[in-house]
Amino acid sequence: MSRYGIDNLPYGVFSRPRGDRRIGVRLGSTVVDLAPLGGLLAAPTLNPLLEAGRPQWTETRRRVTEYVSGTTGRIPLSEVTLHLPFEVADYTDFYSSEQHARNVSQILRPDSPGLPPAWRHLPIGYHGRSSTVVVSGTPIRRPSGQIAEGVYAPSERLDIEAEVGFVVGVPGRRIRTAEFAEHVFGVVLVNDWSARDIQAWEYRPLGPFLAKSFATSVSPWVVPLDALATTEPVAQDPVPLDYLLPAGPAFDIRLAVDWNDTRVATPPFAAMYWTAAQQLAHLTSNGAGVRTGDLYASGTVSGPARDEVGSFLELTRNGAEPVKLTDGSLRRFLLDGDRVTISATAPGAGGTEIGLGEVTGTVLA
Amino acid sequence: MSRYGIDNLPYGVFSRPRGDRRIGVRLGSTVVDLAPLGGLLAAPTLNPLLEAGRPQWTETRRRVTEYVSGTTGRIPLSEVTLHLPFEVADYTDFYSSEQHARNVSQILRPDSPGLPPAWRHLPIGYHGRSSTVVVSGTPIRRPSGQIAEGVYAPSERLDIEAEVGFVVGVPGRRIRTAEFAEHVFGVVLVNDWSARDIQAWEYRPLGPFLAKSFATSVSPWVVPLDALATTEPVAQDPVPLDYLLPAGPAFDIRLAVDWNDTRVATPPFAAMYWTAAQQLAHLTSNGAGVRTGDLYASGTVSGPARDEVGSFLELTRNGAEPVKLTDGSLRRFLLDGDRVTISATAPGAGGTEIGLGEVTGTVLA
Fold it and tell me: Keyword Metal-binding: yes or no (chains A, B) (predicted)?
């Protein structure tokens, strides 16, 4: 049973050799070209569809489902190039896994190992660089920077962060949690590549900057919210302030992190403390607007078990406890030539398990 | 002698009632419409001109100077609406005034009042929100947010930051300081409105987020680098790493901050520790690219004297020492209805003093 059947139909942007960019949906290991449907689907990016809003999203999905069921025109994935599916407006990243925040505090700030003071009161986040959001498969050149006082060199502690990203369709401000699905179109997987040595030296007091701005990879398939089953969010203590309630839906997305050929972790998105609806409500609670194409990521997804963490910082305890890959080699952080692939599955709204594609990247020297 | 004479000619985007957006230059208290010159100047934003690069910038300035000298077609500023002159791609903000960084540390972190550890080694910065960069004159609605644990309310400590912003024209990565003028087109004034209570509660460990994302105002006139005289940067100790050398030009821009009708501060940009060339080199040193329309701001400009500071946090010592305005009223932070105007002048490349326009905004409840 394919995880990319008729119940899923994630949207992407593809091209064939010397062809233009077209919107398609993934069906099994093929792409169905949607340009023949015209209108919002005859565009080189998803932005016009994103902007159209929930009623149009529902109607378009109905039409696409009907079209895909009837057509025999399918292009093997191996024959297409996949592109960044939408133009990224502002990119924001949160920090909403309690286990991740605790792990990072314990590892990097052993003198003050608790959660940051505001952590349980609001979804902490920061703005990232939009121009370096790249599609899965784009090689990741190891960043250089000040890795310690007086040392400008290639990062020696290049890491990943396995995250789930939410793609904003309809602009808005002061968006309530209950309005989440009116504004958010769908979901991608995100790898927020991070240079831990650069980060440790630069981050006080304004947060991460060059440690994360060199590349953020996203999966090429945007899974519509309509395709995903929802679940109950985790209990929150203390009860959040009114503007963050109700918490909104959670999603039981099960991530998997492959370091070369070895599956090293399976982070559970259902364990996240703050929901995507709360993140959006918080982001816009001060009056700031979101735009079509805004991307906001969940923050590193980490569960309580050692093999459920979404970063190598946590997996190897900052390099102190190397992991052994299936080829017998040891890893502390990423080596040149290493490949990381984050994939995910989730219960679908249609009752079957669906795939969220994958986000992959290989490290270049 | 006008500070907007033939030696200045800053570019902006204006419209007349029911008219379209056009590029113009400011001459005295008038605008000269440049659309008749066609080409890069027949556009609704400066982006095509920004993208064209230094040789085109020089040639365009020559043609504009000639055209402006010959034309009698001038539109009074009072008859036009000024717009955001370019589409902002990524927005970045630095923290490059030593005096400001010291003041903030002393006021907010009296237990560790020195500079942050990396401060003298690299220009600390962070990414901001592009979608909320607005043109001078746009009213600023007081943001709400978590101003303390358990309290969601309008900010009670609304502040300004007087800064100088640099507008990137030509994309690039790993830009050397000596290449600064090949990539940067010109200069605007920036007010990085800041809610200090929101900031204090949210900023650990990822930096400011909602405290600054609600609005960033910029002046409507982009002064070309060509119009500005350069000066020597301040001495740096320790000597920066190679990728930050030579330090590049400095600019003797003299800012002035008016709180309603009272001039409360005159921050000296020449006192900045890190130069704009070093900021751009640092920003791109990890491999991240800049794009046409990127805006990066200097960070709050503060000199050593009490009346040279670029924020009210510093001016009133976090509200502990109110300032008296000329109408006799006292201020700690911004009240509803208050208006703040940042203006600036600088020695021009042509030998006369030039104006950098102003960035103004009125606080709404």
Answer: yes
d(CA A90, CA A130) in angstroms, rounded, equals 6
Query: Between A and B, how many residue pairs show a Cβ–Cβ distance under 8 A?
Result: 167
Other Cβ atoms within 10 Å of A261 Cβ, number: 10
Given an 8 Å threshold on Cβ–Cβ distance, is A206 in contact with B125? yes
Please check whether residue B75 is in contact with residue B128, taking contact to mean a CB–CB distance below 8 angstroms. Answer: no
Token match 């000298």: residue?
B69
| B254–chain A nearest CA distance, Å | 26
What is the CB neighbour count within 10 angstroms for residue B239? 10
Give burial (CB, 10 Å; 0-12/13-18/19+) of A55: exposed
With CA atoms as reference, the chain A residue closest to B154 would be A286
- Closest-CA distance of chain B to residue A300, Å: 13
At residue B1, the pLDDT reads: 59
Pairing of strands B133-135, B216-218: parallel
Q: Is the peptide bond before A154 cis (omega within 30 degrees of 0)?
A: no
What pLDDT is attached to residue A267? 98
DSSP state of A261: T
Q: Rounded to whole angstroms, how far apart are CA atoms A82 and A328?
A: 33
CA angle, B344 then B349 then B353, to 5°: 40
For the domain covering A91-364, report its CATH number: 3.90.850.10
* Distance in angstroms (rounded) separating the CA atoms of residues B223 and B226: 8
For position A109, what pLDDT does the model report? 84
Q: What residues in chain B have per-residue pLDDT under 50?
A: none
Judge if ipTM > 0.85: yes
- The H or E element containing residue B344 is strand B339-347
For every residue of A296-321, DSSP letters joined together read EE------SSGGG-SSHHHHTTTTTS
Asked if B229 and B349 touch (Cβ cutoff 8 Å), the reply is yes
* CA separation for the pair B11, B4 (Å, rounded): 11
> Cα separation of B301 and A314, whole Å?
39
CA distances A53 to A50, A59, A115, A199, B210, Å, are: 7, 10, 37, 38, 26
Q: Is the peptide bond before A123 cis (omega within 30 degrees of 0)?
A: no
Domain spans, chain B: 11-83, 91-364
**C-beta separation of A264 from A306 below 8 A:** no
- CATH T-level topology, domain B11-83: SH3 type barrels. (2.30.30)
Q: What's the residue count for chain A?
A: 365
Q: Distance (Å, rounded) from C-alpha B191 to C-alpha B138?
A: 12
The size of chain B, in residues, is: 365
What is the rounded CA–CA span in Å between residue B218 and residue B22?
Answer: 18
Element (H, E) at A50: helix A47-52
DSSP B328: S
DSSP calls for B244-272: G-S---B---EEEEEETTEEEE--BGGG-
pLDDT, tens only, A230-269: 999 999 999 999 999 999 999 999 999 999 999 999 999 9
- Residue B181, SS3 per DSSP: helix
Q: Which residue ranges of chain A lie beneath pLDDT 70?
A: 1
Q: Which two tokens stand for residue B360?
A: 């103004």
DSSP summary character for residue B307: G
Q: What's residue B9's pLDDT?
A: 98
Contact A292, A168 (CB under 8 A): yes
Note whether B129 contacts A206, CB cutoff 8 Å. no
Q: Is A282 a catalytic residue?
A: no
* Alpha helices, H only, B18-96: 47-52, 54-70
- A286 chain-B contacts, CB cut-off 8 A: 143-145, 195, 198, 210-211, 213-214
Q: Distance (Å) from the C-alpha of residue B93 to the closest C-alpha of chain A?
A: 10
In this complex, do B207 and A202 lie within 8 Å of one another by their Cβ atoms? Answer: no
Q: State both tokens at A145.
A: 């920077």
Question: Could you give the 3-state DSSP secondary structure of residue A6?
Answer: coil
Q: What is the DSSP letter of A250?
A: B
